[in-house]
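Before going further, learn to read the protein records used in this course. The integers have meaning only within a learned vocabulary of local backbone shapes. The record below shows the convention in full.
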Amino acid sequence: MDKSKLLFIPLALTLIFAIKPYYGGELTIRLNEPTSFTLNTANYSNLIFYSLIYENFFYLKKNGEIFSNVFQEYRYDVSGKTLSLTIKDNLSFSNGKPLTARNIQVSLKIFMNSDLFAASKLSKTVKNIRVNENQVRIELLADNPDILSLLTAPELVVLAENEQSFSGMFFPQVWEKNHHLILNANPFYAGGRTYLDKVKITFNDSTPPDIFLANPNQFKENFQEFDSGIFQNIYLCFLQSDMGQNTKIALFTILKRFNEATGNKYKELRTLTSDEESPVSIKIKTMSPQKTASILKHSETKLYILASLSNLEKDLAAFLKNSNLNIETLFIDDSQLMAFLNSAAIQYLLIDKIFQKKVPAEEKISRILKESSFNQFNARYLRMLSELDEVKFSNSQELLMEQIARISEAIVNDGIIFPLFQKNYSLYIRKVWPAMEIDYYGRPLLQKVSKNND
């Protein structure tokens, strides 16, 4: 036998095992500035930011694979209609306090009590949530082998009792308002040590980013583009039933003109979901500038806007001032919206929602009706959602589209929601970060990301 070959094989193995991931370094992401560290996934920027500091129960990959960093075992018992979640041993939050099965139980209950459509779907399925040492048992009302998929909602995260403690890969360290935010690696992260030491979230163009969001199909040298499948819709909502139609259309017209005046940053939205998939097109005729001014000029209009749309604040204020209209804009933190609605008589509210293109149209329209009708959600709408659920199991696409059209027309004709704008996003990642994976919701998974130093 050739001795040179005998020597070559161990050498090759030595070289292979000598290759180790690069630990350390900083990655820069350009996002919108958050209003607080309270979970808020209203827009795509927030969806990414809060995924860095809060750990999801389960992650859903683009290929449909589900995995968890928190649970070492998850098993569904058909006969007992129970999902058992066993958490890993010795887990902690970023401040070193233990992460227990009780935290999982409380976090799950908080999510189920929220006003999100995904939460209501889960609530209708769950009978009880019990804790036994390091195990959480979710008892169901009926057999549901797909229960695990309901736990992949991006809003379902592990929460600590202390608001200054976090379960995600990173935790906030330094926040320089209007400039940047430094996140340090969480030494107790359930998924294990991250290769990165820190992540810098920048809110402007002062620092060249490694990751940023922008319109699709923009050529960016040294960047790889990922089609996230995420789009953002903006709606004008009317929260009082006794409001005049002319005032609604006048305010709708003003916001349309604002978009035109600022370079059409958003494309017009003529449906409640997306123009490509909706069976019905919504046509709302705008008013002339003279008629709009005559309706709004002498009224004291207060337009409440979700803080997730705070990037509009400066331009919108300037536009309204130049238009000589007495419209006051007030921004509300998304996480405090429902509490605010219960204590104030809000008439006009500007909101945004993000959607994944792959999500079926019937799920999108259900979510819009459930999350955006607010205090005007009634028995009629509940019945329409039940009818939509029934049609889904008929295997008739025609009947499904007819029911979606009926819901869309009812919402707009009742004057609850007017669709305004839509924006599509791609995620751009600098090519020196080659091992980047994107999940189903368009979020970069940074746990095993390290810089290419070649």
User: Anything to note?
Assistant: The radius of gyration is 25 Å. Residues 26-169+432-445 form a domain with the D-Maltodextrin-Binding Protein; domain 2 fold (CATH 3.40.190.10). The mean pLDDT is 89.
